[in-house]
Design brief:
elongated; wza like fold; 3 domains; Outer membrane lipoprotein wza fold like; 3-stranded antiparallel β-sheet; 6-stranded mixed β-sheet; alpha+beta
């Protein structure tokens, strides 16, 4: 009876492991790639160019300011930069030619010899007059020229912008703009339209800094130890071999049974593209080295022998623990009973 237990356990483990390496059926029948279907699939030597990129969260956009001029009359605010030139002050005092920033409180610092002048909420003409009157109070009839060098709001426009979960781009004091589902040219027009409410004929250059919304997945079956999923950014030119290189190749748990599960738009069917790994690597064949597309799942099946060993270990481990616990209990009882009998002067003999 005891000898039959390991045999039964081994048979059970074999039955449990046989289903691990098979392709599980879904409620929808897989659409296997036929010869005609495979012929039109982009691959290593016949890659395709994807349609114009559509912006989605969490892409990162880069905005460059080509022409951002405020609508008149523009009033200076904290953070603005002005170019100030003050000459003919006094032979003993140096002239001022510098880019100055409006500090907190709306003042600009003219230097330790002159002090601070408040120009916030003034137009350029009013600020020039205020500075001229500042020097007149010291009996200096200086020549003053001031111009707007850079608006504080421009720092909130130019640079990198993350497309938020709501599909909006934040432009600071100029509000937010929805760019989700738009191409780059469409998004540029919409951002310029938003800025036109505050600026005079704004013109920007827009580009995508990080293509974060388009990805593919490499799924490695774990041979009974849990599957591994790696999310890879889609760059537009990757093949199966590139994808495998990006994840460091196959692990010791993997077999050479690989396929691409490709979502089909507007359909519940599953499209499966088998990959001949040996032909791609050892023979240099490009027939199944398909070009990866956004949303693809590259599935690497598990090694059946490793899965068998893992499942047998899972099945036998509880039995081994129970047997070990039983043997430990029996040994403890024997030692305890032997010590009791020896204490009473009873001798025992071992057969």
């Amino acid at each position: 009876m005891l000898r039959s237990i390991p045999v039964c356990l081994l048979a059970s483990a074999l039955l449990l492991s046989t289903g691990c390496a098979t392709l599980h059926h879904s409620p929808h029948a897989p659409l296997l790639a036929t010869d005609s279907l495979e012929a039109g699939m982009p691959r290593e030597l016949s890659k395709t160019v994807l349609p114009e990129y559509v912006i989605e969260p969490p892409d990162i956009l880069t905005i460059e300011a080509l022409q951002l001029l405020p609508k008149p009359p523009y009033r200076l605010r904290t953070g603005d930069q002005v170019f100030l030139e003050v000459t003919d002050i006094d032979p003993e005092y140096p002239p001022i030619r510098d880019v100055l920033v409006l500090q907190l409180g709306g003042s600009i610092d003219l230097g330790p010899r002159y002090g601070m002048v408040t120009v916030a909420n003034l137009t350029i003409e009013e600020a020039e007059q205020a500075i001229r009157e500042f020097f007149l109070r010291e009996n200096w009839r200086a020549s003053v020229t001031i111009s707007l060098f850079q608006m504080a709001g421009m720092q909130q426009i130019a640079g990198q912008h993350l497309v938020g979960p709501d599909g909006m781009v934040n432009l600071g004091i100029y509000g937010t703009v929805s760019v989700v589902g738009l191409t780059v040219s469409q998004a540029r027009e919409r951002i310029e339209s938003q800025l036109a409410e505050f600026l005079e004929d704004p013109e920007i250059a827009l580009d995508i800094f990080a293509f974060n919304s388009k990805v593919y997945y490499v799924v490695t079956e774990g041979a009974g130890m849990g599957d591994n999923v790696i999310r890879m950014p889609f760059m537009g030119h990757e093949t199966v071999l590139d994808a495998m290189s990006n994840v460091g190749g196959m692990s010791a748990l993997s077999s050479k049974h690989i396929w691409i599960a490709r979502p089909t738009p507007y359909s519940d069917e599953i499209q499966i593209l088998p990959v001949d790994w040996v032909a791609i690597t050892k023979q240099g064949s490009t027939m199944t080295n398909y070009q990866v597309l956004p949303g693809d799942r590259i599935f690497i099946a598990e090694n059946g022998w490793v899965a068998l060993d893992t499942n047998m270990g899972k099945l036998l481990s509880p039995v081994e623990r129970m047997m070990g616990f039983s043997m430990l209990t029996l040994g403890t009882l024997r030692n305890f009973s032997g010590s009791v009998l020896s204490g009473r002067g009873v001798t025992t003999s071992r057969l």
